Write the structure tokens for this entry.
Amino acid sequence: MSKIKINSTLKMNDEVIEKKFMGIIIDNKITYKEDLISVTILLNNDKIKMRRDTEEYCINFEFLNNKKTTCVYNVKKQNMIIYLKVKTNSLVIKDNLIIVDYDLYQQSEIIDKFIFKFEYEVIK
């Protein structure tokens, strides 16, 4: 288990959100708190799974390069599950850097386009 310093950037439309966090990495699993959101990222050679969990919702993403996957969005208080489609346009996983360019769809309608950049550094 190692502590890590995280820099993340999320680009959507004309908006850019940059945040910094502290987290933990164990083998291929990164965990951190983003405000009130517990985030877990599982890294593999060719895919990433990301879970974002709060008291209100839980959303699970799977990113595979040039593939469409199903995203499960659980609205907890309403006991409602929404299935979204994720089209991963590009996925970069190298060293301590992750870049995901993806589109999010509800049924066949695009909700938004995103570029998620995630960099981390192990703290000694």
Notes: The first strand starts at residue 2 and ends at 12. The chain has one domain: 2-122.
